[in-house]
Design a protein that fits this description.
- This protein is an alpha/beta fold.
- It folds into two domains: 319 residues, TIM Barrel (Alpha-Beta Barrel); 43 residues, no CATH class.
- It is 55% helix and 10% strand.
- It is built from 22 helices and nine strands.
- α3 packs across α7 and α12 runs parallel beside α13.
- The longest helix has 21 residues.
């Protein structure tokens, strides 16, 4: 074949591909599988080309990154209740976990569900926002999903120590992360300045003062950089997870100070994260089993109702819930929790799966004991230490986990899908597609 005919063939293939994408025709499963691997592990050019192509295919299929703010505004106006949106942190094999979540959502007609990753997780799982978002979009394409996709920055948290040394530098770092995330399609961002709450100050208003100021500053920043026509869903936090339980007085003090700094002409937060007795990852006992955690559902409901009635928010958000017993999840919609955050439970399904290769598990444990030895507390048993640190294996063994045999990955996806379906039913988000389409503006 001569050079001109080769070029003509390439141009023809490109035209056919562009036509297919513009018409929204389906992509072959093997093609999207290959694209997403290149998007994560490819060389610079292959990676960027694959990410661009995935985004084009997503748009053509009607897979649109969206803000959930409209849905939460509706809750704040009393237009719906008794529904708790699950927000799932995916730390590893992101494409496969997201596939399981989309598959379960489509079967149960779920519209209110969120994919998220925290500031800390971005670091130790080696997933920058653009990569994470592309993996979610690719999973949606692979499963044939159409509609809004809610991708969230979870716990974009202020580091108290860094803030005390250089407030400007720490806030600049968070703003740059927000800018990067929004550009990638994260149209939902949770600001966590609860680390700055000063419980040594006497008045509650004074305790929340820095939290109010920083959250307001970050809210204003997001309103300035938001894509045209998009209201980013912004979350605030009044009580650091693992600390003392939040109170209505805390909520009122925070909102009063926050709204005063924000001003009347800037759209504020859509939800508020609170502390009601949980700890991220749960509490692991010396034998590696989990301690029973008691959530104060009365406080959770009271905070949700006050946040709606007095401030027009969607409600209160519960963190650190994925390791709770199954019957606890029935309580969240009953107590008007607007959103619940889930992470470690899904991590455990992957790492504890009987089809997760034992040889790889042994290597993970060996590396954790060696690489992170300085993080081990004197009283930690080996089981406790491994449980607390194994989340970091998703970064250290990222490629090995992505490259597990398809039979193993399918088995893990099936287990995850079953779990997602159970939680969707318990959180009452089944058959919410119509409601989400009514309140969320996501059309491209």
């Amino acid at each position: 074949m001569n050079r001109n005919s080769s070029k003509d063939k390439m141009d023809s293939e490109k035209e056919t591909e562009n036509h297919r994408m513009s018409k929204g025709t389906s992509v072959l499963p093997g093609e999207i599988d290959a694209l997403v691997k290149d998007a994560v592990f490819g060389t610079d050019d292959a990676r960027e080309n694959s990410r661009q192509k995935i985004r084009q295919l997503a748009l053509a299929q009607g897979v649109i990154p969206a803000s959930i703010d409209g849905l939460y505004q509706a809750a704040g106006k009393g237009l719906y209740s008794g529904i708790t949106a699950p927000a799932t942190n995916i730390r590893g094999i992101t494409y496969d976990v997201a596939r399981a979540m989309f598959s379960a959502a489509m079967k149960d007609k779920v519209g209110a569900f969120i994919f998220e990753i925290a500031r800390s997780e971005i670091g130790y799982t080696l997933q920058r926002p653009d990569e994470y978002a592309v993996c979610i979009l690719a999973a949606a394409i692979r499963e044939g999903y159409r509609g809004p996709v809610f991708i969230q920055g979870d716990h974009f948290q202020v580091n108290r120590q860094k803030y005390s040394l250089s407030p400007e530098q720490e806030l600049f770092a968070i703003k740059e992360l927000i800018r990067e995330a929004v550009s990638a399609g994260f149209l939902n961002i949770d600001i966590d300045a609860s680390t700055l709450v000063d419980m040594e100050r006497q008045a509650i208003e004074e305790q929340q003062e820095e939290n109010c100021r920083v959250t307001a500053e970050m809210t204003k920043f997001m309103r300035e950089i938001a894509p045209k026509g998009i209201t980013i869903s912004v979350g605030g936090e009044i009580g650091e997870v693992g600390g003392r339980n939040s109170t209505v007085a805390d909520l009122r003090a925070f909102m009063k100070g926050y709204l005063k700094i924000l001003g009347p002409n800037v759209r504020g937060i859509s939800k508020i994260s609170v502390q009601t007795g949980t700890t991220h990852g749960g509490v692991v006992l010396p034998d590696g089993s989990m301690a029973k955690v008691e959530i104060d559902f009365k406080v959770l409901k009271e905070l949700s109702l006050v946040s709606r009635k007095e401030f027009g928010l969607g409600g209160a958000v519960q963190h650190g819930a994925s390791t709770l017993p199954d019957d606890a999840f029935d309580m969240f919609p009953q107590e008007e929790t607007v959103e619940v955050h889930l992470a470690t439970g899904f991590q455990n399904i992957i790492l504890d799966s009987p089809i997760f290769p034992q040889e790889l598990r042994d290597r993970v444990h060996k590396l954790l004991l060696e690489k992170y030895a300085d993080e081990r507390k004197p009283k930690d048993t080996e089981e406790q230490f491994i449980y607390k640190t194994r989340k970091k294996a998703f970064g250290d063994f990222k490629k090995e986990m992505w490259n597990l045999p398809e039979a193993n990955l399918k088995g893990i996806r099936d287990t995850l899908e079953e779990r997602f379906s159970l939680l969707f039913h318990k959180l009452k988000v089944t058959n919410t597609v119509v409601m989400v389409n009514k309140f969320v503006n996501y059309k491209s």
